[in-house]
Design a protein that fits this description.
It is a single chain. The chain is α/β, with parallel strands linked by helices. Helix content is about 20%, strand content about 25%. The protein is built from 9 helices and 32 strands. The chain has a 10-stranded parallel beta sheet with strand order 1-2-5-8-13-18-21-24-27-30, with helices on both faces. Strands 3-6-9-14-19-22-25-28-31-32 form a 10-stranded mixed beta sheet. A 4-stranded parallel beta sheet has the order 4-7-12-17. Strand 15 and strand 16 form a beta hairpin. The two termini are about 35 Å apart. It is found in: Secreted. This is Pectate lyase. Keywords: Carbohydrate metabolism, Lyase, Polysaccharide degradation, Secreted, Signal. Belongs to the polysaccharide lyase 1 family. It holds the Pfam family Pectate_lyase_4.
Length: about 450
């Protein structure tokens, strides 16, 4: 009982912090509360990112490495000065984002569009004419137009992929928004990203993959946050959307939707020790991919991620989809169903997914048997799940049993490990939607 009381008391204290009114700041300066949050480190035992040395971000930054940024150019400068080399800047730094920073902002401050980034030899009409499966067939595009598309992608990457170095904290001030860009966390360690709305990390030049699925698919390259070959990353109290460019508004080419968005938070290429907490994912298709390939190799023993107290609202798949890693998914609220919904938890090759005390609010035809998907995995540990389906009362549901009753082969019930890195004992699942809906996402911290 004391453990439960202490956990509830700790949570209550945290919620008071998120609702406290910030002290006023001097013009151009973060408030005192923002300064404190910029120096905040991940609490002990708070998920996989707390393992070992923990995650401190830029908390040790000297005064000359603390900046408030309002433009893409200022963001790049605060992260080290040169986007091509910023990933190598390991000096502790704190970057406060004020207002909207757009990845398509050019050197003169004017916004670029896709035509500005396209190679002179690329055009979409020509590309569609050249690689129409009716004439080109079901083989991958090749030749001058595909080469021009690849060069166009390289130009967009230089423009919209913002590279982040080790020992960095990025915090959004009230109303902060990053749009049209990817935060790339690659080959670094010790990064914190908090209190930012991420919107529309669009790909101007999606790739046509004719062998992807039964009829082929368009695939985009850019995530909103990409964590690759990195350790000790804390992603907290952010909001992820497609902004005013939803997938539903995209055209159809070759009979398949033109896919301009990839993941919200993808953890791939041997990355590990990541905690994803108190975020809000709204109306997105592909949300969180953990492990990008089924190939057994360097990812084995890596890709260890905690996903807790997040709201997945109207999202369609990868909540998360897991390969190889020990992934702890607890106390999240899922509001799912309707057109396009695919699944919530993807059980992939050699995955060890541990799902506890999650709450699922389902609409449309979605049912408990639809919440898991077997991507080549064999087992997961799933306990304490509750489901509210349509107008029915919430009830505890064994998701694995529901899945196994409707699908073959069955998924086993033991992921082979038990999480130990938790800051508090999990709340009962029926409380999760009330707590998570109120406090997940950007704008809930006192900034």
């Amino acid at each position: 009982m004391r453990t439960r009381t202490a956990a509830v008391a700790a949570l209550a204290a945290a919620l008071v912090l998120t609702t406290a009114a910030p002290a006023p700041a001097a013009p151009g300066k973060p408030s005192r509360a923002a300064e404190l949050i910029g120096r905040q480190t991940l609490p002990a035992n708070d998920g996989w990112a707390a393992a070992g040395t923990g995650t401190t971000g830029g908390s040790a930054a000297a005064p000359d490495r603390v900046h408030v940024v309002r433009t893409r150019a200022e963001l790049v400068a605060a992260l080290g000065g040169d986007n091509a080399t910023n990933a190598a800047d390991a000096t502790p730094k704190i970057v406060y984002v004020a207002g909207t920073v757009d990845g398509f902002e050019g050197p003169d401050g004017a916004l670029l569009d896709c035509a500005d980034l396209a190679d002179p030899e690329y055009s979409l009409p020509a590309y569609l004419a050249a690689y129409d499966p009716a004439t080109w067939g079901r083989v991958n595009p090749s030749g001058p137009l595909e080469a021009a598309r690849v060069r166009s992608v390289a130009e967009q990457t230089r423009q919209t992929q913002i590279n982040v170095g080790s020992n960095t904290t990025i915090v959004g001030l009230r109303g902060a928004r990053l749009t049209g860009l990817t935060l790339m966390i690659d080959r670094v360690a010790n990064v914190i990203v908090r209190n930012i709305e991420f919107a529309d990390a669009r790909d101007c030049f999606p790739a046509w993959s004719p062998a992807d699925g039964d009829t082929g698919n368009w695939n985009s390259q850019y995530d909103q946050i990409s964590v690759r070959r990195s350790e000790h990353v804390w992603i907290d109290h952010n909001t992820f959307t497609d902004g005013d460019n939803p997938d539903s508004a995209q055209p159809v080419y070759f009979g398949r939707p033109w896919q301009v968005h990839d993941g919200s938070v993808d953890v791939t290429h041997t990355a590990s020790l990541v905690t994803v907490s108190w975020n809000r994912f709204t109306g997105r298709d592909k949300v969180m991919l953990i492990g990008s390939s089924n190939t057994v190799g360097p990812d084995v023993g890596r890709l260890n991620v905690t996903v807790r107290h997040n709201l997945f609202d109207g999202t369609l798949q990868r909540l998360p989809r897991v390969r190889f890693g020990q992934v702890d998914v607890h106390e999240n609220h899922y509001r799912l169903g309707g057109p396009g919904f695919a699944y919530a938890l993807g059980v992939g090759v050699q995955s060890a997914l541990y799902a506890e005390n999650n709450f699922f609010t389902l609409t449309g035809d979605a049912g408990p048997a639809d919440l898991l998907y077997d991507w080549g995995g064999t087992a997961l540990t799933e306990r304490g799940s509750w489901v509210r389906q349509g107008d029915r009362l919430p009830r505890p549901v064994d998701l694995r049993a529901a899945y196994n009753a409707a699908h073959d082969p069955d998924l086993g019930g033991d992921a082979g490990w038990t999480p130990t890195l938790r800051a508090a004992r999990p709340l009962p699942a029926p409380l999760v939607p009330f707590v998570v809906d109120a406090f997940a996402g950007a704008g809930r911290l006192p900034l």
